[in-house]
Every structure is written in C-alpha cells, then in structure tokens.
Amino acid sequence: MRPPDFPDEHDLVPYEASKFSGKRVLVFAPHPDDEVFGCGGALADLLERGARVDVVHVTDGAAGARSEEGRGRIALERTEESRRALEALGGGTLHSGGIPDRGAADRLAEVEALLARWLVEAKPDLVFSPSPVETHPDHRAVAVALFRVAARPAPDAAARVLDAATVAFCELSQPFRPNFLVDITPFRARKERAMRAFASQAAVRDYAGFVTGLGTYRRMTLSADVLAVEAFSVVGGNRLRSDPEGVVRGLLPLAPEVTGG
To answer: What percentage of the chain has pLDDT greater than the value 70?
Structure first.
C-alpha cells in the first residue's frame, strides 16, 4: 500500500489549464523584460478581456554600466524595449522604480516602500511577482519585500490591499512546482513578438529561447492541442501574512523520507 506521504502526480501538478480573472492587475518586474518572460501570455489574455495592467520595473535594468551617463542610456533603452513589448501584448502602463540593477537585495526597505506605494495606488485584485525561490538576487528581493509588506501590522493600507488580492508567482530564473497552468497558445505569437523587442538582452543570452523551452515543457500535463504554457503558483494574498512558510513549501518539489537499513 502506498504510504500517505506519497501523493499521486495529479495531486502535485495541474492537469487542466486555468484563466486569471483580474480586472486591476499589478506586475512587479525586477527588471525590464521580466513582465514578458514570466507572464506575458497571461497579460495578453487579461488585456484582451479588458483588464487594466500596471507594470512596475523595480530596478533600472542597467547592470554593467560603466558610468552614470551609461546607466541612464541603458535604462532608457530597456524601458523603451518594454514599452514596445507591452504594445505587442496589447497595452499596459509602465512605471520605473529606479533602484539600481543588482542592488535590490541591498535596498530591501526601498523595494518594500516601492511595492507598498504601488499597491495602494493601483489597488490591484491580481498581483504578479517573482517567487521567493528565485536564484537571481533582485528577483528574490522583490518576493521578500512583498512578504514584508504582507506582514505589516494593521491598519497598514498596502497590507490590506495585498490581503484582499490574489498573488501569482512567476517562473523567471528558477522553475518551481506550479498549481496553476495558463494555456497561452492563442497568445503565443504576441508573446514571441514582445520577447523580440528585448534586443539588448538577446545580445547577452537567449532568454527568449529559455522561456519558450520552459513553456513547451509545461505542456506535459495538458492536452495535445496546447502548444505553449505559463506556469504559476497562485495564492491568496492573505496567505503571505498568515502562512508564509507554507507558501514557500508549496513552491518546492516533494521528496519522500528516505531511511536506510
């Protein structure tokens, strides 16, 4: 008999696609391009169904700049790439946080304040964020800052907004165990056009190829007519406050207890 801590795969990974239902959508993107790579297909679907989408670039995306002038030029270039990418997806509004690229972990208080400000201003019912198991420090810092906002004592306005929202963690630099799969087949061409807008990043690494490959893999548990998928871990915002450890555990693969002898 199978032990109780040995669940079937249907209990661990979705076997049906789902759709988001947000009307006021807020995306916390650590860098310009993360909003497309992580959830571009889902955003295209939401935009087509009339959602308002605000994208906050937490950092300037200008790592590697050798001067302040160079940093400003790179930041503007990457912001313009993101504008073109959002146009390809169907719309949305960009906002710049201005924190230096690769500096979010050193400025957690600033990141937290930025996220709190936009939660109050945008009043989202759906929030996209990188997950706390990301490998890139900027990505992880944004997730940590979101948990810190959630943990603020009452009657904090940002914490109240987050408490009532749905949070969707995206896969960026680290895949996780998802509980929500979105069939983006109808929006695959839009996402591909949007990813092509990031010419500056394509010159560094084939990020679009990595994202496409992951989306192809995520088809595994869905029907054969599904050609591209985005995976998420979706939780009620109140769980970031009430059960943060449980939220993180839900992202991780399960391993059975192994005993010798």
So the answer is: 98
Give dist(CA 215, CA 212) in Å, integer. Answer: 5
d(CA 193, CA 86): 10
Residue type, 42: A
Q: Specify whether domain 21-250 bears CATH 3.90.550.10.
A: no
Q: 117, 156 in Cβ contact below 8 A?
A: no
State the amino acid at position 169 in one-letter form.
F
Q: What pTM was computed for the model?
A: 0.96
Decide if 186 contacts 196 (C-beta within 8 A).
no
Q: CA–CA separation, 29 vs 124, rounded Å?
A: 15
d(CA 201, CA 254): 34
Question: Which candidate, 93, 103, 26, 25, places its Cα nearest to that of 60?
Answer: 103
93-99 and 52-59 beta bridge pairing: parallel
Strand runs labelled E in the chain:
24-29, 52-59, 93-99, 126-130, 166-170, 180-183, 229-236
Among 133, 132, 77, 140, smallest CA distance to 111 is for: 140
11: DSSP letter: G
SS3 at position 26: strand
215-224 confidence digits (pLDDT tens)? 999 999 999 9
